[in-house]
Design goal:
Radius of gyration: 31 Å
Bound molecules: adenosine-5'-triphosphate, magnesium ion
Strand content: 15-25%
Strand order of the largest sheet: 12-27-28-29-25-26-13
Length: about 575
């Protein structure tokens, strides 16, 4: 579906890049990266980061890498790697060259660690995780030096190589940077660079039993890939001094030797980390840990549950990539955190679907109507989009038996009710004006059928001598197709389920977030093999076929969103 893009508005990152280009800081290059950890599915927050990283590179003639930040194999898997790649392409972006993995730099990272040890800037520490925490101090108290801080370079080299060789069990030793245990920034208090973990890795198999930490890995991976601008979220602001410390203490020539620019004459300039605010949305949870909990506890059907803020879920629900991109652009990029109203996302979605989704008719709660005077079945030709003739027309069968929505009929006239009442008239969308002549009930008194006559002079014309206000949708009972429809509401009952004072966010799930309606009737055009990905079912909202639960016997449609905001 097409973009309706305005000119991108300025933000502090666009400004910074313009300045760096003007001063030729990176030899005119813009190289960004999107660095997901493959420990879950991407969510709407990641979409913001993706749009920013890929967008800013493209705007400036640059490139964006996709790099899996895979240093914690215990929580990562190939399933997540595959889903992430798929989601990024679906959003409409292409990464530069091959997919990259931090784990493919493990050899270089190891060599750089040896380099730091050789410079007296890293040491092997014997403190257990608990002891190390205690030695680290607090925000108000400085930390204490590890008893192993002054190990000789030789001993450190020897121990580090034995760590790699698998001589020690998990947790018995770690490699730490030697910086400053009294630093006001806790990240600088001799942070861990390597941990021992005898565990299989989804990319490197059993080659390693020591794994580098995120902080140590990220900056070096950025440098190896010759990233110019390393954009990340605000929680890494306090890690920036460490990012710079590590890179500044490595021998720049040795980085250049393993980097993407090894073969070029371009000046080598270290990457610069810049932080921006995370995207938060109300009435939902954005954050892999919480999403994973919902999935693992079976509170939703999976990572692609259409109620989730995952890209897989939103895609299945019928969100379009263009709507998400437009939303991310309209949210903007800032340095202060704020919660964005779900309504803004829904607005972007409606705008895109209204412009691009063909119309069709679907009756959610069918009530049988017999058109007693229709001489024969006929085929009407209806425009697919009221404002876009170029979207073509479709054939809509009108037969003697049709269905209308139960909600569009009342036995007794009520003030303000403009649809069909007993003895009254209404127009069938795109077809005739009909009059309800007779109402049939079953033994319990429920209405089971209406017998109506059509005014055969009213196709594309107003009836003579009277006004008929109401227009309702309908579907042929004999040529229509039965489908199941799933309607969605907000996943949570409160605006901020992620608030700090919430003890158990799962207790705030909206029990009515999913409503399943079976036996709905849709016109045949909407279920043809080559039909559009999304439809506006007239008067009901936007719908898309569910790709997971539809099968030959039951077609399932998800309501992407209603026609207008209902909250
Ligand atoms: P989560 O908090 O959901 O676990 P994460 O930050 O741990 O996310 P990563 O896979 O490490 O997930 O993130 C990849 C990139 O996406 C990082 O650069 C991260 O800063 C960015 N990102 C993650 N969440 C958001 C968000 N809500 N808004 C904007 N960017 C985000
Ligand atoms: Mg993370």
């Amino acid at each position: 579906m097409s973009d309706s893009h305005e000119t991108p508005s300025s933000n502090f990152i666009r400004q910074m890049i313009a300045e760096d280009l003007a001063s030729n800081r990176h030899a005119g290059r813009v190289q960004t990266r999107f660095p997901p950890e493959p420990n879950g599915y991407l969510h709407i927050g990641h979409a913001k980061s993706i749009c920013l990283n890929f967008g800013i590179a493209a705007e400036n003639g640059g490139q964006c890498n996709l790099r899996f930040d895979d240093t914690n194999p215990a929580k990562e898997s190939q399933e997540f790697v595959d889903a992430i790649k798929d989601n990024i392409q679906w959003l409409g972006f292409n990464w530069s060259g091959e997919v990259r993995y931090s784990s493919s730099y493990f050899d270089s990272l190891y060599d750089f660690a040896v380099q730091l040890i050789g410079k007296g800037l890293a040491y092997v520490c014997d403190l257990s995780a608990d002891e190390a925490r205690e030695y680290r101090g607090t925000l108000t108290d400085p930390g204490r030096n590890s008893p192993n801080r002054d190990r000789s370079i030789e001993e450190n080299l020897e121990l580090f190589s034995r760590m790699r060789a698998g001589d020690f069990p998990d947790g018995e030793k770690s490699l730490r940077a030697k910086i400053d245990m009294a630093s006001p920034n806790i990240n600088m208090r001799d942070p861990v660079l390597y941990r021992i973990r005898h565990i299989h890795h989804h990319q490197t198999g059993d080659a390693w039993c020591i794994y580098p930490t995120y902080d140590y890995t990220h900056c070096i991976s950025d440098a190896i890939e010759c990233i110019t601008h390393s954009l990340c979220t605000l929680e890494f602001e306090d890690h920036r001094p460490l990012y710079d410390w590590i890179l500044n203490n490595l021998d720049i020539d040795s980085i250049k030797r393993v980097s993407d620019m090894a073969e070029t004459e371009l000046p080598y300039v270290l990457p610069k980390q810049t932080e921006f605010a995370k995207l938060k949305l109300n009435y939902t949870v954005v954050g892999k840990r919480k999403l994973k909990q919902l999935v693992d506890e079976g509170l939703v059907s999976g990572w692609d549950d259409p109620r989730l803020s995952t890209l897989a879920g939103m895609r299945r629900r019928g969100y379009t990539a263009a709507a998400l991109r437009n939303f991310c652009e309209s949210v903007g990029v800032a340095r202060s955190e704020s919660q964005v109203d779900l309504g803004m996302l829904e607005h972007a979605l409606r705008e895109d679907l209204d412009a691009n989704a063909p119309r069709a008719m679907c009756v959610l709660r069918p009530l049988k109507v017999t058109l007693t005077n229709l001489p024969e079945a006929m085929e009407l030709s209806l425009q697919n989009h009221p404002k876009k003739e170029e979207m073509g027309r479709r054939a809509v069968p009108l037969t003697q038996e049709i269905v209308i929505d139960r909600d569009d009929f009342r036995e007794e006239a009520e003030p303000g009710f403009k649809r069909l009442v007993s003895g009254g008239e209404v127009r069938l969308r795109g077809a005739y004006v009909i009059r309800c002549d007779e109402v049939l009930h079953d033994e319990s008194g429920e209405v089971v059928e209406l017998r109506c006559s059509a005014d055969l002079e009213t196709l594309g014309k107003n009836p003579e001598g009277r006004k008929v206000k109401g227009v309702i949708h309908w579907v042929s009972a004999t040529d229509g197709v039965q489908i199941e429809v799933r309607l969605y509401d907000r996943l949570f009952t409160v605006e901020n389920p992620e608030a700090k004072d919430v003890e158990d966010f799962t207790s705030l799930l909206n029990p009515e977030s999913l409503q399943v309606i079976r036996g709905c009737m849709v016109e045949p055009a909407a279920v043809q093999v080559d039909s559009a990905p999304s439809f506006q079912f007239e008067r009901e909202g936007y719908f898309t076929r569910d790709t997971v639960d539809s099968d030959e016997r039951t077609l399932v449609f998800n309501q992407t969103i209603g026609l207008r905001a209902s909250h």
